[in-house]
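call fold(seq) -> tokens
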Amino acid sequence: MKNITRRLTALAVLGVATFGHAQDVPALARAVDDHYNHLRSLETEFVETYRGEGLERVESGTLWLKKPRKMRWEYRSPKEKLFVSNGQSVWFYLPAEKQLRKTSLKKLDDLRSPIAFLLGKTKLEKELRGLSKALDETPVAVGNTVLRGVPVAMAGQLSEVLLEITPGHQIARIVLVEAEGAATEFRFSGWKENLEMNDSRFQFTPPAGVETVEGSVGP
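ret:
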């Protein structure tokens, strides 16, 4: 009888804990939405790691975001490259190769493209189906919470997205898992919010002698 009572008590505690985890996900998602939807601009350092097909690639640099849909990814390591959007057009420039590719943001099929919509358009529960706590994932920093969901907009390309959220409701890490198993992880740090940013930062003029190719952009 005592064993049965202990089991029932354990199940009850587990049930309450699980219910609690489910209950606070919507509140956490709304807090993240509120944080980013009130930002006009954001500057952050990033580390981008790709793992797949037996290889790992690590790159780093600085990201600038500005409403509406403007972004500038300035890669410094291991080699320089530039990924810029003015909200309509997107440029991808490799200085070492003197190569410039250009496309429209609407046609962009790139894992960085959803981040352009982060400021002012965030609604996690709408964009990530089945949003829940990823209890099997260890956060990079103590006190952070990892959420998991299936992206609606890129469902054919991505199988799931992980978001690591800080206690201040900032996104510290995004992991984009592709359908075939490859994963791209972005880690962000050193956030500077609502800085004054000139729109010229999100324009690009090709250097002399650089040929522009219209079409696909990235990686």
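The mean pLDDT is 85.
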